[in-house]
Protein 1
Amino acid sequence: MDRRFLAVATELLDEEGWSALSLDRIAERAGVSRATVWRAGITRTSVERLLRLRLVADYQELMGQTTGSGLDRLILALRALCEVAERNLPLLAHTDLAFHGPDLEAIGVEFDYFAPWLQILAQAAADGSLAPVDDPPRFIVALTDSLILTYVHLRAHHGDYGWDADRTADHLIDLLTHGFAPRPP
């Protein structure tokens, strides 16, 4: 896909939502004919597919960069998740199902969201930096949804009130790690 058209489509999505992703709107914004956009294969479906592929690639790249104790890795993973959200804000601001299986399976993506988090929790329990978690998948969903959904909302809808990327990540990570993460006995 032509990067120029993807950038235009992403801007339209960010500004106006999914309904803006039409051949006419993309062509108008790009300053080309509708036929040019059509010949390039730009559709809402193709744009959504590419944005989801980018989301998964960013997640896999950034989640693999955690080191240290289990607690250190958890904090770094939360920060990485904020970076994933920041890189993919236009998509995430318009769907809260971007990481969900059916939407990814529909575009042919096999994706294990839980693997890095399960490894982190196992290491944290083993090194004593966090208490063991009774139901890790439920904990991971609550923790990461609390972070990413709040992060996206604050960044997409309250940026004018000072919720820049760093402030938002710092605040939410502090809130979650001090008020939510299990502590050793």
Note: The chain has a mean pLDDT of 90.
Protein 2
Amino acid sequence: MIKKVIIFFVLIQTLNINAQSIKQEFYDTNGKKISKEEFLKLENHNINLAIGLDYDSLQVFKLVNRINLDTLDTLALGNLKKHLELNYEQKIANDEYIVINYITANPLLKKENNLSLWTILQPNYIKKLHKKVKCKQFWIYDESQIHLDSYKYAHINWLKEKDSFIKNLFYPFQFSYGNCTVIAPNGNFYSYYGEYGPEKVFNGIEILKKL
């Protein structure tokens, strides 16, 4: 039984903890078992994230690509649209892209009076987004994220996710700060895991246009 899932940016200290008493296994982004030395060499925060799966007597460390490209089948795409339309009360046209900005519960934000300067929250991001593609933009956050005060700009309509539908569909692990996903009208989608900026969203749009 898995006790916990841990997301790491720097692994060296963590990998040394209990190394003598607990068995450790290491896997690359393709699921291939590798050595600890190979794992540390491949770990690169710009292109992948390292996660730790902590079992009773085993620690499993895996590398996950920050970019995930995949496809929703017709049924899954239809269910996604229904879910978003029901919660946001706005219709998604058949030729529109869907853009999701998702705030995770890791780490829990502190209560702040000042608005965050994170570029993804700024109004000019929205202006540039709609110039690049016809889309509907959705802002969603994990229900365990307590204080979202510093992210609550007037132009953002935040939805607290209470059923983990989006999290379960696109985000297998609790990556830090947030993730973004762009879904094309044909069901192809691009997800970027972990803290990001507008350029990651725009990059996803350009990638999907070429598929």
Note: Residues 74-88 form the longest helix (15 residues).
Protein 3
Amino acid sequence: MAVRKSWNVVHTCGHSVDHDLSNRPADKRAGFARWLAGKDCTDCWKAARDGDSASKEDWLAAKRAEEQQAAAAWTQQFQMPPLEGPAKALGWGERSRHQLVTTAYTALVAEGSWDEADWAELEEKIRTVTRAGWWIDQRDAEALDLPELLDAATDDDRGTENPFR
């Protein structure tokens, strides 16, 4: 007698669904059917997932707003110049700059061997790069690489304003 391939599973949501388990090894089918019985059916699972996307979007929007507020406060505190570029990229660039620079400060000064004079020199280089896209492109860079990345920035990445505040 052959091990059955089709199982009628009553899911936790109450729906009864016939599942074709022929693509599973014969000795794994009963255990998989038991596992399926402990889950919602596919339709209920998809409905719950799609309904939850609104709360994920709300959470992400709140997180981005919090990051933007911290970046704006940091920009003002350290007198960083405003970024240039498309309006859509400005906030993202500001958040990317804030995250990379604060992480670099921690790595180079707080935990590293740099002193405040070294950092002040680097901070002036940071102020010269005002293209939002450049900061977005560096968002995944290692904090310790920031000095070298700033040296590699081109004139297209630097603003045309007077760098001497």
Note: The longest strand covers residues 6-10.
Protein 4
Amino acid sequence: MAAPVEQLRGFMGHFKFVYKGYSLDLPAQKPVIALRASSGSFPGKILDDFVNLDLRILSPKFFFDPNNDPEDDVAQWLNPCLDTQWLDIPVKHFQNRDYRSLETIHVNFQGEGTPNRLKDEDWWEAPGLITTYSDEFFQKAEISLRHDGGGTFSAQVLGETQFGTSFALAFTAPLTVKLTAYRNTLTAEQLVNWFDTFLRKDDFVFSEERRGEDIYLSGIVR
């Protein structure tokens, strides 16, 4: 695949993939670039030395009927979506507690068993999936980020799924933070102080929501 950072230059955002041999170029909607972490989501779950990088983008659901025949085996409803909910970034990768250093992080996933340079171990599961008619986990993927200023990043995700669907996605979104303490495991102050050990809390504005025993903190760059 071509140099991902260079390919990010000048795009407006797109959701392209090749599904069952058909090339589709779809509108990209509701982009998300978020750092997530939680405690107490299961017994003994604590905040670790990594934070999850959640990249999400979707395209409107539509009826895919390339042969103009709704009885064709290919014709079906498609609900395109990207989700990287298994992509963990060790906090040591953030330089000088600066969120802008996120753009130095690149992912080159070439299937289970290949080296994961982020965590100094091998990949044992795909970092994300593409949803078309059903969920298709990455068979390979290259992920790049670029800081555009003001806490806004551009993301590019290129690759192929386990079922042979190739994809090329590009989008822009503000960097957000989602910190959660389930079952009163931590206070809001403790959540923010943990975050402040690797990214400066003063660079973000946080809002708090409580639901029973659970605390949800949402942050966005000032």
Note: The longest helix spans residues 188-195.
